[in-house]
Design brief:
about 350 residues; mainly alpha; about 0% strand; globular
Length: about 350
């Protein structure tokens, strides 16, 4: 069973909450969005139903409803709600409508409707040149085996902001996922050369990390360790793991956690590091410590890795019970479905 590695990101990105409300009171809508931030998607839907009954702004309500359905992995329902939200747009689209369209594209994609997702990005780009839309459309083009179209979009995204290293890393990971790792690395090499005089040690370190030059990555990230916060610590620890020094990697994570509030991302990575060392009980404790954090953006990975730890501890019955619960929250996880079938035989 594979672990869930990497830096965790929120499934639901709260880009825009309640803009465009005027002076109207939107109490139930606000409560629904707060519930989404707390990852209480079912509670959010209850709030939005009340908001509709109370006559609150339907564009905001249906948008929130769509986001909640994404959180529940009910993507067809999410798309239907987001389409309703957009139907209330009058005049020139604003930031709220653009944000809703990004969620709609996500819902289409997750529901297997790639052409519809592409059409959303097309519509966005017909109205404005947006690096995020170019990047995401390019990744979908890779999924359709349209390499030339994908790289054309990536080139446009980079031309709009050559120093957006988050975007560059997304481009690299997309190309790597679809078998174009060398092409992805070329983008990173070009970015490194173009930003030679201005790139900071954190960005340089993570670009070296993806280029698999772990010695240079370590040197840069050590410089960034005290400046880059938790993200720099994550990359530094993962670099030591790539170099095979799991003991020092674990000490990097532990030292950070001793000085700062608990981070679900770092606890997840610490648990993964402990797993590599065969310290399964300590790994389990790290995952469970991460799971205890409220408003947790790493919840799915932590839950999956907790189950893996129980498997390694040969507590198969406990792992199977947790996997059944996990699949209720994430029914579209095909790897987890296969693993559940295995656990039921143990």
């Amino acid at each position: 069973m594979r672990y869930r590695t990497g830096i965790c990101i929120a499934v639901i990105c709260m880009c825009v909450l309640l803009t465009g409300c005027g002076n109207e009171k939107q109490e139930s809508t606000k409560q629904g969005m707060a519930a989404i931030e707390a990852l209480d998607y079912q509670g959010a839907l209850t709030c939005f139903e009340k908001a509709l009954a109370d006559g609150e702004n339907p564009e905001l309500v249906y948008r929130g409803q769509g986001i909640a359905y994404i959180g529940l992995t009910q993507y067809a329902d999410a798309a239907a709600s987001l389409e309703k939200a957009l139907s209330y747009c009058r005049g020139i689209p604003g930031s709220l409508e653009y944000d809703t369209n990004y969620y709609l594209a996500m819902a289409y994609y997750k529901n297997g409707e790639i052409d519809k997702a592409l059409a959303v990005y097309d519509a966005i780009l017909d109205l404005k040149k947006d690096k995020t839309a170019y990047c995401l459309r390019g990744i979908l083009e890779l999924e359709k085996d349209n390499y030339d179209r994908a790289t054309a979009d990536f080139d446009k995204a980079i031309s709009l902001d050559p120093t957006d290293y988050d975007c560059l890393i997304d481009i690299y990971t997309g190309l790597e996922r679809f078998g174009y790792k060398d092409a992805g690395k070329e983008y990173l090499v070009q970015a490194m050369a173009a930003g030679e005089q201005t790139i900071n040690s954190y960005d340089k370190g993570r670009l070296y990390y993806y280029l698999e030059d772990y010695e240079e990555a370590r040197n840069s990230l050590e410089q960034a360790r005290d400046l880059g916060g938790g993200d720099a610590v994550l990359y530094l620890g993962r670099t030591y793991e790539a170099l095979g020094d799991y003991n020092y990697a674990a000490s990097v994570y532990v030292t950070y956690l001793e000085k700062h509030d608990d981070s679900p991302e770092i606890l997840n990575q610490l648990g993964l590091c402990r797993m590599q060392k065969g310290e399964y009980q300590e790994a389990l404790e790290a995952f469970q410590r991460g799971l205890a954090i409220e408003n947790n953006s790493c919840l799915q990975a932590l839950k999956f890795n907790e189950i893996t730890a129980y498997e390694h501890l040969t507590q198969y019955k406990k792992a199977a019970v947790l996997m059944e619960s996990y699949l209720q929250s994430y029914p579209d996880d095909s790897e987890a479905l296969r693993e559940y079938e295995f656990l039921k035989t143990r």
